[in-house]
Amino acid sequence: MKITVEQDAEAMAKAAAEKAAQILREAVLVRKRAAFIAATGASQFDFLKHLVAAPGIAWDKTTMFHLDEYLGMSADHPASFRRYLRERLTSQAPIGSAHFIAGDAVDLAAELRRLNQILHATPIDVAFVGIGENGHLAFNDPPADFTTEMPYIIVPLEEACRRQQMGEGWFKSLDEVPRLAISMSIRQILKAGHIICTVPERRKANAVQACLEGVVEPMVPASILRMHPSCHLFLDPESASLLQPSTLSA
User: Fold this and answer.
1) Mean pLDDT (the chain, rounded)
2) What are the tens digits of pLDDT across the range 169-203?
3) I want to staple 143 with a disulfide (CB 3.0 to 4.6 A). Which of 200, 218, 222, 250 is the partner?
């Protein structure tokens, strides 16, 4: 894992977007196409802003996969991740194909089969992710399933995760936050050729420390990123504030 600590959150987002753009441009150059996984949440605001403004990306030759979505939520709900990505990504860049998760599908089993079939047939060049306050990766809350090979799975959301969503302003009360979601699985995320992980803010410092300095285990889902051969972790001084100097220099 390559760890980069930038001077502030804005610089962190810009550096992460520059690396992401480089990976996408190189994939298109070499294979005439690029496929990527897009995350959502507050940690991705500035990253996506800089990514869609990056020069030289042949967006029409890219394919986007959606990382996770709440179960039962409509695409026009203010907290919907489909809405988030349409507003901040697909309406800003002419992406060739965008595969969204229909969390409110009438037949969830059919929706999972549809998504899994497409993803099985599409090598992923890069995944854009963050780390939750409870150490989750996508919506894989602790204890995460490190073994399933299913690309998309239905997962329960623990209270700490639900409180984070409320705290970020997506919901007015904890009772409004769904208890289930469809999430890309841990092993599927790790199949990406590269991973760009952006983690700003002091509220993520404990999770970052646990992921980087603790044991790689399902109780700290994002700790598995340390096992990926090309994971680029971008931090700001606040999110990196609890790390040992030896961790940053490793």
Assistant:
1) 95
2) 888 999 999 999 999 999 999 999 999 999 999 99
3) 218
Query: Which residues of the chain are under the pLDDT cut of 50?
Result: none
Among 179, 191, 106, 92, which Cα is nearest to 151's?
191
Q: Are 128 and 37 in contact (CB under 8 A)?
A: yes
The residues pairing with 37 across neighbouring beta strands, listed in sequence order, are 65, 127
Beta-strand (E) ranges in the chain? Answer: 2-5, 34-38, 62-66, 68-70, 97-99, 126-129, 152-156, 180-184, 194-199, 231-235
Domains belonging to the chain, first-starting first, are 2-249 (3.40.50.1360)
- What is the rounded CA–CA span in Å between residue 152 and residue 191? 13
Sign of CA dihedral 102, 105, 109, 113: negative
Orientation angle between helical segments 9-31 and 45-53, nearest 10 degrees: 50
Q: Which position has the token pair 């803010």?
A: 201
CA distance 162 to 167: 9
The letter for the amino acid at 194 is: H
3-state secondary structure of 217: strand
